[in-house]
Amino acid sequence: MMGSVGRKFRNPGEAIGWLNRKEVRQWFRDHPCGTQSECARALGLSSMAVSRHVRAIRAEWRDEVDA
Fold first, then answer.
1. How far is CA 59 from the centre of its chain?
2. Alpha-carbon span 62 to 60, nearest angstrom
3. Secondary structure percentages of the chain, helix, strand, coil, to 5
């Protein structure tokens, strides 16, 4: 399955997760003082899903700093 900019996904769930993470990342850029609960409500995601995406985004940042 092809995604954004030629990215390949193993299944539809992975593609949805990637798109949701992209939306969460953008929401926090636009709302730097926003909470995870506010993000979840605004995007129609569960608080648990937003929490997982935030953890993954933070891990990406750590990887960039360590590189």
1. 11
2. 5
3. 75, 5, 20
Which residue is associated with the tokens 């360590």? 66
Residue 67 has pLDDT above 90, yes or no: no
3-class SS of residue 8: strand
Give residue 7's identity as a one-letter amino acid code: R
C-alpha to C-alpha distance for 15 and 5, rounded to whole angstroms:
12
Question: Which residues, in sequence order, are bridge partners of residue 2?
Answer: 8
Q: What is the pLDDT of residues 5-21, one digit of tens each?
A: 567 899 999 999 999 99
Any residues with CB less than 8 A from the CB of 59 and at least 6 apart, and which? none
Cα gap 65→45, rounded to integer Å: 29
